[in-house]
């Protein structure tokens, strides 16, 4: 266990085996608008058709190995229907697209009180390179450019969930 100072109020124990987290949603379509970044039109949508909307959370203990494992799992995840309406096809098989949105709130701690704490989320300096590596490797794995949100920005995400099918993955609890 590592002990850290939480917002100047108390010491909190943080397990050393934190994990990169992803929420994968099978979608018919999804889009994101970035609303608070200078130089980006707030009306511009980064959109996909059939594929995955992936919410990605990174913590300070994550490494390139976590990125590799998660990309391989997601690219091979068989949750799209085959001709017999059985979830037996991957995003590769259906030539699907991907939209990745950074999501530090996947590391919310709500143990005490009703206001979540985000102390488990990775720092920008650590998280941005891993987020970018994840997006690049996923693009290579599926053979298509992955659409992205903007790390740390306020975003408006829209999706049409297909199923619904929502899978939660983490890189330490590989179930």
Could you describe the 3D structure shown?
The chain is an alpha+beta fold and 175 residues long. It has one domain (18-170): D-tyrosyl-trna(Tyr) Deacylase, Chain: A (3-Layer(bba) Sandwich), CATH 3.50.80. It contains 2 helices and 10 strands; from the N terminus they run βββββαβββαββ. The protein has helices spanning 64-76, 124-142; strands at 2-6, 10-14, 21-34, 45-48, 51-57, 80-81, 87-89, 97-102, 147-148, 155-170. The strands form 3 sheets. Strands 3, 4, 5, 8, 9 and 10 form a 6-stranded mixed beta sheet that branches. It has a two-stranded antiparallel sheet with strand order 1-2. A two-stranded antiparallel ribbon has the order 6-7. Strand 6 and strand 7 (87-89) form a beta hairpin. Helix 1 (64-76) packs parallel to helix 2. The longest helix has 19 residues, at 124-142. It is globular, with a radius of gyration of 17 Å. The relative contact order is 0.27.
Can you give the helix content as a percent range?
10-25%
Identify low-pLDDT runs.
1-7, 9-15
Q: Structural class from helices and strands?
A: alpha+beta
> Do you know the CATH topology?
D-tyrosyl-trna(Tyr) Deacylase, Chain: A
Q: What's the level 1 CATH class?
A: Alpha Beta
What characteristic shape results from the CA principal axes? globular
CATH architecture grouping: 3-Layer(bba) Sandwich
Under CATH, the homologous superfamily reads: D-tyrosyl-tRNA(Tyr) deacylase
- In percent terms, what proportion of residues is strand? 35-45%
Summed over residues and divided by their number, the pLDDT gives a mean of: 87
- Strand tally: 10
- Radius of gyration of CA atoms, rounded to a whole number: 17 Å
Whole-number tally of structural domains: 1
Count of runs of 4 or more consecutive helical residues:
2
H/E topology pattern: EEEEEHEEEHEE
User: How would a crystallographer describe the biggest sheet?
Assistant: 6 strands, mixed
Distance between the termini: 23 Å
């Amino acid at each position: 266990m590592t002990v850290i100072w939480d917002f100047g109020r108390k010491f909190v124990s943080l397990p050393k085996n934190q994990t990169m987290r992803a929420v994968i949603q099978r979608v018919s379509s999804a889009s994101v608008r970035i609303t608070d970044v200078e130089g980006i039109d707030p009306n511009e949508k980064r959109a996909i058709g059939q594929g995955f909307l992936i919410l990605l959370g990174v913590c300070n203990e994550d490494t390139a190995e976590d990125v590799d494992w998660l990309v391989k799992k997601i690219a091979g995840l068989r949750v799209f229907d085959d001709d017999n309406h059985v979830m037996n096809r991957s995003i590769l098989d259906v030539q699907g697209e991907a939209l990745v949105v950074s999501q530090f709130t996947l590391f919310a701690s709500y143990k005490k009180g009703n206001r979540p704490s985000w102390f488990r989320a990775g720092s920008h300096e650590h998280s941005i390179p891993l987020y970018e590596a994840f997006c690049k490797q996923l693009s290579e794995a599926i053979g298509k450019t992955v659409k992205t949100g903007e790390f740390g920005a306020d975003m408006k995400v829209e999706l049409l969930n297909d199923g619904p099918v929502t899978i939660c993955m983490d890189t330490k609890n590989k179930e």
